[in-house]
Specification:
Number of helices: 10
GO molecular function: DNA-binding transcription factor activity; sequence-specific DNA binding
Strand order of the largest sheet: 4-3-5-12-6
Number of strands: 12
Radius of gyration: 28 Å
Strand content: 15-25%
CATH class of the largest domain: Alpha Beta
Structural class: alpha/beta
Largest sheet: 5 strands, mixed
Oligomer: single chain
Family: Belongs to the LysR transcriptional regulatory family.
CATH architecture of the largest domain: 3-Layer(aba) Sandwich
Distance between the termini: 63 Å
Number of domains: 3
CATH topology of the largest domain: D-Maltodextrin-Binding Protein, domain 2
Mean pLDDT: 89
Keywords: DNA-binding, Transcription, Transcription regulation
InterPro entries: LysR-type_TF_proteobact-type, LysR_HTH_N, LysR_subst-bd, WH-like_DNA-bd_sf, WH_DNA-bd_sf
GO biological process, one term: DNA-templated transcription
């Protein structure tokens, strides 16, 4: 590219855009004021554009203002990438895409075990609730919640959760502990709004033989984590998936109500573009993930 100037000249321009005088810019660059002035004049000659209005104070021309963020972004990305490469130091980065709630509640607590087992793998977690499209993302692999119909991808079943009501000890102290499922109709119920994959109180009540058109809803939430957080605050009873309340059930901050088997209609699946599943670092991650999933499945029965 004939219009690409030396890096030192670009750096002088980037620094000068953040200062009001050549003198202060020179101080940051550890060069003389005349050297800064010369580099900027050289850059203007190369590009055939006036970049600064020169007076008592430096100010950018419209052309300079348009180019300044591009040059700043170039140096920022260069520094970030170099730092990232130095940090890896022989490790292999693996970008894992999943939903935010699953990453926070299930995957994140288990990642230290992966790091101990495979310290050479450097995991980057990326979260979205949208359908994965590997053609438009930098993600290497993904964990998806659904019915397993991903025909264009390599797909492996992980586990299926159970659905059950949970409440905080404080709420049960205020309202009393229900003796049978029908009694939940006098409690405030926390509802997770959303698509058909979201746990629904109406479906749960129908499963246990209770038909009701009106539920004593408290608040509707657009996010699983908010629903669980509201249950922890004693605001109502949530219909939770087992993988999202492991810690809370274990430490007693939430109590499972009723041992009614209700498998989730959807399950978790490992997916990736076909062909890359045999790459060594992906095989290691798959093996670890599926072993963790198998253990989880046994505890969710």
């Amino acid at each position: 590219m004939r219009d690409l100037p030396p890096t030192a000249t670009l750096r002088a321009f980037e620094v000068a855009t953040r200062h009001t005088t050549f003198t202060s810019a020179a101080a940051e660059l550890f060069i003389t004021q005349s050297a800064v002035s010369h580099q900027l004049k050289n850059l203007e000659d190369i590009w055939g554009l006036q970049l600064f209005e020169r007076g008592k104070k430096l100010s950018l021309t419209p052309a300079g203002a348009a180019l300044a963020p591009l040059v700043r972004e170039f140096f920022s990305k260069l520094e970030t990438t170099l730092a990232d490469l130095r940090e890896q130091n022989g490790r292999i980065r693996l970008r894992v895409n999943t939903t935010y709630s699953f990453a926070l509640k299930w995957l994140l607590p288990r990642l230290p075990d992966l790091a101990r087992l495979h310290p050479e793998i450097l995991v980057t977690l990326e979260s979205t609730d949208k359908a994965i499209n590997f053609a438009s993302t930098e993600s290497d692999v993904a964990i998806r919640f659904g019915h397993g119909n991903y025909p264009a991808l390599h797909t492996e079943f992980m586990f299926r959760e159970q659905l059950f009501p949970v409440a905080s000890p404080a709420l049960l102290q205020r309202f009393g502990t229900p003796g049978e499922p029908a009694e939940l109709l006098r409690y405030p119920l926390l509802t997770r709004d959303g698509a058909e994959l979201v746990p629904k109180w109406g479906v749960w009540f129908k499963l246990i033989g209770i038909n009701t058109d009106v539920l004593p809803e408290s608040v509707r939430f657009a996010d699983t984590n908010m629903t669980i957080a509201a249950a922890l605050l004693g605001q109502g009873i949530a219909l939770a998936r087992s993988g999202h309340v492991e810690k809370e059930i274990s430490d007693g901050s939430l109590v499972r109500l009723f041992d009614v088997p209700f498998p989730s209609p959807a399950a978790y699946y490992f997916v990736c573009p076909r062909g890359i599943e045999t790459q060594p670092h992906i095989m290691k991650f798959r093996s670890w993930l599926l072993a963790e999933s198998q253990q989880a499945q046994l505890s969710y029965r």
